[in-house]
Structure formats: structure tokens, C-alpha cells
Amino acid sequence: MTETLDTQRRKLAWRASRRGIKEMDLLVGGFAVAELPRMNAAELEAFAILLDIPDQQLLAWATHQEPVPPEQDSPMLRALLAFRPQVKA
User: Fold this and answer.
1) Does 39 have pLDDT greater than 50?
2) How far apart are CA 45 and CA 67, in angstroms?
3) Which of 24, 36, 77, 83 could disulfide-pair with 31, CB 3.0 to 4.6 Å?
4) Interval 57-78 mean pLDDT
């Protein structure tokens, strides 16, 4: 049985907000909340691939401690790294 896009979005949102490192929960989870509702099937697949990248690696790229390798560079990764979550005080 094929999942609906809404089911995929819910599963990806859950995975995105429970990364393990709080900073990544905020960045990736915040990106998911803001962007998942607008994503089509191909974009959902690209986002799912990003969720398999370890937190430490994403954090190093997000904080510019390491450059993104060309083989990992993608429009979805660039959008994620450019995203700035709204943090409540």
C-alpha cells in the first residue's frame, strides 16, 4: 500500500524533530515544520535522504566548520542550511 504525501510528511516531521542533538532538532525540525507542507513527492524524498546524514556532520556544515562535499551538495541541503529557525525565548 502506497503512503499518501500527508503520511510521508508526518513521518518525516517526526524524524526531523527527534535528531538527538538539540541544535539539529531545532534546525531540521524547524525546517520540516516550515517547508514540509509545500514539498512535492520528489522533494520529500530528497529531504528523507538528508535525514540519514548524521547530526554531527550536518552540524559541522551548518556552522561552517567543514565545507559541504560536492557529492552531498543539493538544492534541498542548501535550503536546509540556509534556514534560520525561530527560537522562542
Assistant:
1) yes
2) 23
3) 83
4) 95
